[in-house]
UniProtKB/TrEMBL annotation:
Its main location: membrane. The keyword DNA repair does not apply. This is Iron ABC transporter permease. It is a multi-pass membrane protein. One of its GO terms (cellular component) is plasma membrane. Gene3D superfamilies: ABC transporter involved in vitamin B12 uptake, BtuC. GO terms for molecular function: transmembrane transporter activity. One of its GO terms (biological process) is siderophore-iron import into cell. The chain crosses the membrane at residues 43-67, 79-96, 103-123, 159-180, 186-210, 231-250, 276-302, 314-334, 346-363.
Amino acid sequence: MPETKLYRSPTFCSAVSTPTSPLSIASAPAGTLWWRWGAVSLLVYRAPLLAACGLLAALLMSSLASLTLGSAGLDLLDALKAIFGIGEFMHVFVVQELRLPRLLAGMGTGAAFALAGCLMQTLAGNRLATPGIIGIDNGATAFAVASVVGLGASIAPPAMALSGAVVAMALAFGLSGGIGTRGYRFLVAGIGVGALFGAGTQLMLARVSIDVANNAYPWTVGSLNARDANSVIWLGIAMLIGLPLALWLGRGLNTLRFTDRVATGLGLPVARMRLMILWLSVVMTAAAVAVAGPVGMVALVGPEIARYLSRHKGVPLLASALAGALVMVLADLAGRTLLSPLEVPVGIVMAVVGSPYLLWILLRSPR
């Protein structure tokens, strides 16, 4: 058997095999990078790292395109200067007041939806178990619409969206049989809960005036146009807390993919881990719905792109967040520019793109 020899560099080390090497130091597995700094070391897999770097580069390019393209076209240099308030008044107004807040909202909501989708899919052990499929999106939307149409609720839409997501999660969780339930039973209960909240949303819109219904319309289809600044700020705070927490839960998520007995035997507190994942998914989904409405297809497409690019058996949390942000920004850019001056809401664009993809997942033969 060939022995493993470690070739060191000042920062990174990788494991390679030589057939004639003497006894050598055991090191990082093949396909990984090992970073050491004194007593601190970090082991990362190459494929997920390269996927995250590629997605980050693509997100940067799509963000620049979102700032420059539109009915008022801008040069790249003018758009970059306008971000810092330098240049002509019209350029600064278009970038700082219209396009940059919309871009930040798209990046934040896409990352939150995709991260929640990856967590929920891992929890249920099913690639279709996204917050939109199991009714969390519809629950948050129904409560947000209730605050807009004024049905005795004066709470702001973000807080109401969080309340609706919690109620929907509790119903799906309770109807599916508790925290240990996995698979299609959880999906079926969530679909029923989502349909119930969806019908309630339509009933509320049917009983108010057309002007009030128009104000609530963005929360029913998904839109990034003229988003509330406070909602975007709360979304940013949720992402700053939620993404590191999800990465911290990464090892437990990998273990949770085994059966409950195996995970318990490996020392994982299964019930507590699932409860934490549920709450984190609910908070991420509610924060995103409060900004953009129910754009649940991002939670399905983003993790799938991350898994394909990572080609790794772990849970691609960071890559999922980056892929969701990229998909959301591109969908919003397409909705703004393809049929200009007519604007297509980002939720409709994602439904057109994501629905065939969902059918492909359902109909293709499993490998």
